[in-house]
Amino acid sequence: xxxxFELYRDREGQYRWRLVHRNxxxxxxxxxxxxxxxxxxxxxDSVKQNAPDAPVESxxx
Length: 61
Prior knowledge:
Elements: E1 3-9, E2 15-21, E3 26-29, H1 37-50
């Protein structure tokens, strides 16, 4: 495995997750805090289920 989901509490006491590569780089994060660790785990599960083979699209900014 080259990456691990980390579940943690932020400074406000909210639960968050981040996907960390084994080299320490953060690949993705929850972008929001959750009130319970169960809700944060649901966010992790959603990413795993809904985007395992998501395409990459170029967007002009």
